[in-house]
């Protein structure tokens, strides 16, 4: 029986479980999430563009709308079906559907790669690749998070699959398209990979250039008109002084130029050069020793070149050699070049993990098939242990991470408060950055086939950054009915003419730290966000 349906199911269910236990999102996810929201709620008609989030809250550095629009369109049928059948009762269910749609893209791409591994190397290499990938924390937890890095990941993995399958032109074209539209750092994979293929005489220079041009310009031909039309009305904006409408023809390049030219990347902090080594080790977890052993093993076999040795394994040698030859240059270049950039985040190099997992999987498969029975039993025990430790670490990390979205619980506190129809609820930025997305505004006017029907009691949600609304007096004088803020202590204590203005009626806890004590491991939380009602 074909094995890929099982892989697809596993690759779907594990990240889906992560989505269900941590359904809320952070600010980094919000551009893509909210653009998908706008597609679902308003459709693509230009007549409604003025309602889109980037128009009502302009000022963010432009990114391409192509990925979120595709995600929104892909989510549309399930969102409409779930709304029509009553399967989801609130717009939060629609947020989960959007995230699960991204998970489905992830699962499709990784299944494609697993099938290539099976065809080219061995079924057990593919099995181990899927098992290691899913036992780790970062990729499965983020597979359903609408960060540009994770809308790029499925495409990058599909490109890896093409490359390993000798569909070199398609692989290079897809990497270039992803770099052009979604994340420019993918160029650090695309360019060295293409060069290596040319040097290895597997692809001619004209073919490599052709693939790059077709991928890059092909993607821009789709994205540029869309981005220009959607972004141009928001520019120029005071927070983006020299960003013109023309820059939105290629937002990735403009944003990179803006960040570098203005030194904005440094605003996010400078990290030590070796940060990515520890980031890779954390992401790989139990796959790290397998990766090292696999490389050393293949090198030793390659050097001795004595087949028939008890530790010889042709499949291992072939897998490591071909992964290193085809994907190695890109992975090394990505990590090395980004290590020279001051600002570092693990997700910038997340694309290195699948190729490294392939080598680790090849090693695991060879270990599990060692010819001597005692040796084989021992190595299988060790492999089970590594997989178990990796999965336990992932479970623990997920458990801790679920406490990290205090803004996600605001809607429950609001529901409990039973505010009257047409109440205006104002959000400060912290709750909006930690989980209070547009989808959590469940009593809005969601009149769209992709949303559950609007409820009778509706509220007006305000995200305005108007400075006067930041203070207890200003918010009170503006006639707001409720305020959701991280500065709830200040609000609850504030008085006007001798009487209090705001009453604390709800709170949301957030993560403080992990405590290892006598009673075992404890995740410490404390109130982070307060819900205040006008007195
Ligand atoms: C080599 O490893 C593969 C798994 O990738 C396994 O199926 C095969 O039996 C191994 N060959 C030898 C000679 O151990």
Automatic annotation (TrEMBL):
Catalytic reaction equation(s): an alpha-D-Man-(1->2)-alpha-D-Man-(1->2)-alpha-D-Man-(1->3)-[alpha-D-Man-(1->2)-alpha-D-Man-(1->3)-alpha-D-Man-(1->6)]-beta-D-Man-(1->4)-beta-D-GlcNAc-(1->4)-alpha-D-GlcNAc-diphospho-di-trans,poly-cis-dolichol + a di-trans,poly-cis-dolichyl beta-D-mannosyl phosphate = an alpha-D-Man-(1->2)-alpha-D-Man-(1->2)-alpha-D-Man-(1->3)-[alpha-D-Man-(1->2)-alpha-D-Man-(1->3)-[alpha-D-Man-(1->6)]-alpha-D-Man-(1->6)]-beta-D-Man-(1->4)-beta-D-GlcNAc-(1->4)-alpha-D-GlcNAc-diphospho-di-trans,poly-cis-dolichol + a di-trans,poly-cis-dolichyl phosphate + H(+)
Membrane-spanning residues: 65-89, 96-115, 146-164, 170-191, 203-226, 279-303, 323-342, 348-369, 381-400
Stored InterPro entries: GPI_mannosylTrfase
Example of a GO MF term: dol-P-Man:Man(7)GlcNAc(2)-PP-Dol alpha-1,6-mannosyltransferase activity
GO annotation terms (biological process): protein N-linked glycosylation
Signal peptide: 1-19
Pathway assigned in UniProt: Protein modification; protein glycosylation
EC number, as in UniProt: 2.4.1.-
Cellular location(s): Endoplasmic reticulum membrane
Keyword Ligase (UniProt): no
Alphabetical keyword list: Endoplasmic reticulum, Glycosyltransferase, Membrane, Signal, Transferase, Transmembrane, Transmembrane helix
GO cellular component, as recorded: endoplasmic reticulum membrane
Predominant cellular place of this UniProt entry's protein: endoplasmic reticulum
Membrane-topology descriptor: Multi-pass membrane protein
Family of the protein in this entry: Belongs to the glycosyltransferase 22 family.
Function as written in the Swiss-Prot or TrEMBL entry: Mannosyltransferase that operates in the biosynthetic pathway of dolichol-linked oligosaccharides, the glycan precursors employed in protein asparagine (N)-glycosylation. The assembly of dolichol-linked oligosaccharides begins on the cytosolic side of the endoplasmic reticulum membrane and finishes in its lumen. The sequential addition of sugars to dolichol pyrophosphate produces dolichol-linked oligosaccharides containing fourteen sugars, including two GlcNAcs, nine mannoses and three glucoses.
Full protein name: Mannosyltransferase
């Amino acid at each position: 029986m074909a094995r890929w349906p099982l892989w697809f199911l596993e690759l779907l269910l594990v990240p889906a479980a992560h989505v269900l236990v941590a359904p809320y999102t952070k600010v980094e996810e919000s551009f893509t999430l909210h653009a998908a929201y706008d597609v679902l709620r308003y459709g693509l008609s230009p007549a409604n563009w003025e309602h889109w989030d980037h128009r009502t809250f302009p000022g963010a550095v432009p990114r391409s709308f192509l990925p979120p629009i595709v995600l929104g369109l892909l989510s549309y049928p399930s969102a409409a079906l779930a709304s029509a059948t009553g399967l989801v009762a609130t717009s939060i269910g629609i947020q989960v559907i959007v995230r699960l749609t991204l998970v489905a893209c992830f699962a499709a791409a990784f299944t494609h790669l697993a099938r290539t591994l099976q065809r080219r190397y061995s079924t057990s290499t593919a099995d181990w690749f899927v098992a290691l990938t899913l036992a780790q924390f970062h990729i499965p937890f983020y597979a359903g998070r609408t960060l540009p890095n994770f809308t790029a990941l499925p495409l990058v993995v599909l490109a890896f699959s093409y490359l390993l399958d000798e569909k070199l032109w398609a692989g290079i074209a897809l990497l270039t398209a992803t770099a052009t539209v979604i994340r420019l750092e993918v160029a650090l994979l695309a360019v060295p990979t293409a060069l290596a293929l040319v040097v290895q005489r597997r692809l001619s220079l004209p073919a490599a250039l052709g693939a790059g041009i077709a991928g890059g310009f092909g993607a821009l031909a789709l994205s540029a008109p869309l981005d220009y039309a959607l972004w141009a009305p928001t520019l120029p904006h005071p927070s983006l002084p020299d960003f013109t409408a023309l820059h939105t023809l290629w937002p990735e390049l403009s944003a990179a130029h803006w960040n570098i030219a203005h030194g904005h990347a440094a605003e996010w902090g400078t990290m030590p050069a070796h940060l990515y080594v520890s980031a890779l080790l954390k992401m790989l977890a139990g796959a790290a020793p397998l990766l090292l052993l696999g490389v050393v093993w293949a090198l030793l076999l390659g050097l001795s070149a004595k087949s028939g040795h008890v530790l010889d394994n042709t499949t291992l040698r072939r897998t490591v050699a071909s992964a290193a030859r085809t994907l190695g240059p890109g992975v090394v270049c990505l990590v090395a070049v980004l290590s020279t950039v001051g600002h570092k985040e693990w997700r910038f190099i997340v694309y290195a993990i699948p190729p490294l997992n392939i080598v680790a999987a090849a090693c695991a498969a060879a270990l599990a098939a060692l010819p001597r029975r005692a040796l084989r039993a021992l190595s299988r025990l060790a492999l089970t242990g590594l997989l178990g430790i990796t999965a336990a670490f992932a479970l623990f990390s997920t458990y801790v991470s679920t406490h990290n979205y205090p803004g996600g619980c605001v809607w429950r506190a609001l529901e409990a408060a039973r505010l009257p129809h047409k109440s205006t609820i104002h959000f400060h930025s912290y709750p909006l950055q930690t989980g209070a997305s547009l989808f959590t505004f469940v009593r809005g006017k969601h009149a769209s086939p992709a949303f559950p029907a609007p409820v009778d009691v509706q509220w007006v949600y305000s995200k305005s950054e108007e400075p006067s609304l930041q203070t207890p007096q200003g918010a009170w004088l503006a006639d707001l009915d409720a305020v959701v803020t991280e500065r709830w202590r200040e609000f609850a204590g504030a008085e006007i003419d001798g009487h209090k203005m705001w009453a604390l009626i709800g709170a949301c806890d957030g993560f403080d730290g992990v405590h290892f004590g006598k009673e075992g491991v404890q995740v410490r939380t404390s109130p982070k966000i307060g819900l205040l009602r006008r007195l």
